[in-house]
Amino acid sequence: MKLIVAIIQPDKFEEVHQSLIDNEIFRITVSRVTGHGQQEDPELYRGQEVRPNLLPKVRLEIGVNDAFVEPTIEAILRAARHGDGTVGDGKIFVLPLEEAIRIRTGERGGSAI
Question: Which residue numbers in the chain have pLDDT < 50?
Fold first, then answer.
């Protein structure tokens, strides 16, 4: 089992969500977060250029069985890119998931996902 964490641009969320659904990945957790990577989008404030410290992003967390790791990554990559890819499109992290427990039934392991 793996936990896939993706940080994407807010305007790409609907496309990524649909891409995941098309690949039969339905169980996700979504959070609005702020962060900063390499992108530098200066803004004008009272006539002066200001570089924002934190920019709005969307964080997806998806627990998957090993067979769904690559389809999940491909679905996100396909939908989250702007054109051929631009700075700030996001990141995907794949982490080992030691245990999953369904609270309602107490079921454990891959079947709890």
Answer: none
